Amino acid sequence: MELRHRLPLLKTAVLLGLLSAPGAPAKVFETQAAALARVFPPPAQVTRATAFLTAEQKARAAKLAEAPVESAVVTRYGGFTASGEAIGTAYFDTHTVRTAPEVLMIVVGPDRTVRSVDVLAFAEPEDYLPREGWLKRLDGRRQEEGLFVGRALAHVTGATLTTRAIAAAVRRILALDSILGPPAAPGKKP
Q1: Quick one: which of 33, 47, 68, 77 has the fewest CB in 10 Å?
Q2: Domain of 90, in residue numbers
């Protein structure tokens, strides 16, 4: 396997190593496998697709999201019914909140709306996490809604940096999803 194909796996391994290091205050709430099984439960089929953004796509995504797109490698997981109908696409976004990493799973529906946002791992103090109700307010949102804290999204006292990081991640994923489109159904070529 070429190094460029292993980068997403290496990034996840390094992150999990950082989050589980002795003395690290991180908490892993759910594994990637468990999260995917929860949002795409059997008999759904899940396909993994890796896209390599061109410089133009990367710049376009950053402009659409009004947030940085640091990696040109995008790994996503398409969920499909047994008949091959798209359920949604799951993305895993790792970013720094204040000084420590956070891992989100953001699921985008076939209609290009946010289906769900889940915090899978969080290395900042848990007091900095917004309540689940705040995350639920992202469900059904579209890229065009200007998902910024203080505009379309409410401020959360004590979690300002976290909510801003989550909002930027959601905008980034919606932008990437609009550029890349859905992954191919099982047994079909992209």
Answers
A1: 33
A2: 3-180
Let me know if residue 189 belongs to a domain.
no
Q: In this predicted model, what pLDDT tens digit does every residue of 136-188 receive, in sequence order?
A: 999 999 999 889 988 888 888 889 999 999 999 999 999 999 999 989 888 77
- CA–CA separation, 31 and 16 (whole Å): 10
Distance, in Å, from the CA atom of 12 to the CA atom of 32, rounded to the nearest integer, reads 10
CA–centroid distance for 81 within its chain:
21
Residue 145 DSSP class? G
Tell me if the pTM is above 0.70.
Answer: yes
How far is residue 126's CA from residue 18's CA, in Å, rounded to a whole number?
A: 17
Is residue 185, in this structure, part of any structural domain at all?
no
123 burial (CB, 10 Å; 0-12 / 13-18 / 19+) is: buried
β-strand partners of 76: 49, 91
Residue among 163, 82, 89, 86 nearest 124 (CA)? 163
How many domains, in total, are found in the chain? Answer: 1
CB proximity list for 22: less than 8 A, separation 6 or greater: none
Residue 186 lies in a domain: no
